[in-house]
What does this fold into?
Amino acid sequence: MSIRENILPFSVFLITAAVLVGVRTSTSPSLNRNWDANQKNLASIEISVDDVFVRNIRATRYRTATDFDPTYFDRTYRLSDLQKACLIVEDLGGGGRAHLMLSFEFRGQGWLVFSPEPRLEQGERFSALAGLFRRYELITVVAMESDAVYLRTNLLNHPVYLFNLRIDEARLRMLFLQMVARETALSRDPEFYHTIFNSVAGEIMRAMRSVANQSSPGPLWIPSRADRRAYEMRILRSDVSLALLRGRGMITEEARAGQPDADFSERIHKAVDLIQEGL
It folds into this structure.
């Protein structure tokens, strides 16, 4: 291969990178842009003793992944009713790509999802390459499972896995409060998303490490292996194989079996609980 053939791909990469760098590196992260309609409203969370006041919980109703009516509501939860958390892994296919979320169950009030995401402007599409060059802000979407999970299983048609976290009450509360604190910080003082150094996987891994039974060295370079990392940190059920947890943790078919109604969370968690909790 000639020197010219070697140099050409690298030159194309440098030119592309330079264009991306020029897009926004001279700016600061902002809360005020022409945001995508489904990421326009950020949650607001206030805690007073045992009460958790959550405003702008997203519960969007979708006709398609791009045709929807953004819907939000407010609700008060009680910390004393927090009883379970699970890791959600959306398989994006190819190269170990995955989107990670944490969902928390409150007794009598269902599940509340925390989904770190790059925040998009109207008409913008996500690019991992652009994410290296301060193209997006980082936010945490707070949503119902009938929104955040249904969107991914039923409309984006991605495989989704649930894994119940095995942590005690004190660490469960610690994990929840950490996600609340991070969402609050990002909604007040924006940060740029970075594909490597300030990513969705990084957000979830930092939270899980804070409650881990065993240390986990190094960053998670392959997000689709988040379940393996959680297993190694001993915050998943450890007396059965990860393969078994993963196999019964896929909730895609259960999610597609019905509508995003009041029974959606019960339906997708029931099958998971049979193997992850029932043996």
User: Anything to note?
Assistant: The helical segments are 3-24, 145-155, 169-188, 200-209, 226-232, 242-249, 252-256, 264-276. The radius of gyration is 19 Å. The chain is about 35% helix and 25% strand. The chain has one domain: 3-276.
